[in-house]
Input
Amino acid sequence: MTGAYVTWIAGHRSILWRTFAEHVTLSVTALAIVLVIALPLGIGLARRPRLAAPVVGIVNALRTVPSLALLVIMLPVLGTGFLPSVVALTLYGLPAVLVNTVAGLRDVDSNIVEAARGQGLSEGQNVLRISLPLATPVILAGIRTAAVQIVSAATLAVFIGGGGLGELISAGMGLLDIPQLVIGALAVALLALVTEIAFGATERLVAGRLLGSTA
Amino acid sequence: MDWILNNPETLWEALVQHVIIVAEALAISLAIALPLGIWSARRPRVYALVLGATGILYTIPALALFALLIPIMGLGQGPALTAIVMYSLLVLTRNVVVGLRNVPGDILEAADGMGYGRWRRLGAIELPLALPVIIAGIRLTVVTQISVATVGAFIGAGGLGDIIFQGITQDIGDKVVVGAVFASALAILADESLRFIETRVRAAGGLE
Output
């Protein structure tokens, strides 16, 4: 039983490596774009509650859309390949970071912000030195959620020609090649678990540092 | 939109099938998560184990979980239902536990003082007070189940995902989009209806 799997891996190292690299590239690109959009947008929205409410509402509706639907809806607009996959994955990961950035910043104790203002900190300094560090644990939790969601949904990119480890699952299914199917599934499951654990560890590390520095 | 006009009954069947899969998955998940949550709510070590195990299941990408079940259970609605249930356990169990733990101690003591037995206290006091949090868990779970069920079409679960996958293989763009739009609309509708129920129950006297 395991022999078939070992044989498959031995004979298909290059495709395993290529689909893995594609999967990571897709995920990292999408997550990077999510951060570039969601962090500044979230910081801006946190101080404008009237604008934040409808934006968070729309973004939460986006959160509800099934991942497969979000990916394939790109087909008529952007066609197949890397670009539509990255756009869909970005839209999929955006809500978690945006919502947590807005919520994290808004929940910072207003007394602390007042005190900092009283000590002569400008609005910008206040955000950078006081609010952001205090909101960091919540923001990092959002980034972890987004990262895992993106790695997970990237498995479905194969259906719009985006490649990635889902290719092994899809091809394994088409060819009724169980080793290929199972190894693809195990690889992507492992990647998702490692992402969750790595981001979780970073979160705890940063939270520990922050607590240490304010104590 | 030609496809939808020519095939209304195909779309309707897929929609009904999708709703049935989710309803079945929800019933089974609740039958597991409710007792599991009640059992582990006051046992921190058991709860940690339950969170760890269901958390791992929740992290595995849907397509991978379906693929891993093929060598064990083959294709069709059985393995699809199994995978959807595996996905639902984390959020449901967690919300049952959080809901039960949020019931204030003095209320429990008052119930004990009035001579309520353990099970009567659970049924008449604890579960009703935990209901809003449990319904919030059901809402999140149903939205996840609708999404995972869409992918389940890959291993023969049927439903709206079937329309999407058929559209891709037959290269009918309209069909793909219709499947995707209906799956999204179903998820948003389920989310909004359950949110409405959640607000009503909360207003009727549940606890935060």
The first helix of chain A runs from residue 2 to 11.
